[in-house]
Design a protein that fits this description.
By secondary structure, this protein is mostly helical. The chain folds into 2 domains: 1-38, no CATH class; 40-91. The protein is built from 2 helices and no strands. It has helices at residues 10-38, 42-78. The chain is flat.
């Protein structure tokens, strides 16, 4: 069948390379499981702490990306004065 007209190429990629992709994923999963099963004591705590730092950085980047939207919504709800009161010119 000809899938090229209605596809972005992902289906064709999976048709030809699914086995290699799954093999690489299985090797990576086994290496990760082996790494985490050997951790104990202080290395486990350091790994957990590093994961928390990376997660915190990710949350802060998402917040930074959403900040213009939050400012826009705040402006739409409360107006330009920002404190919920009507401006002096509008009274």
């Amino acid at each position: 069948m000809d899938y090229r007209r209605h596809s972005n190429g992902w289906l064709t990629f999976l048709e030809h390379w699914w086995f290699a992709f799954m093999a690489i994923a299985a090797i990576a999963a086994s290496q990760g499981l082996s790494f985490f099963s050997r951790l104990s004591g202080a290395p486990w705590i350091w790994c957990y702490g590093l994961a928390l730092i990376v997660a915190g950085i990710g949350v802060s980047l998402i917040f930074y990306a959403k900040l213009p939207l939050y400012r826009w919504v705040f402006n739409c709800i409360f107006g330009e004065s920002g404190d919920g009161r009507k401006m002096e010119a509008e009274k």
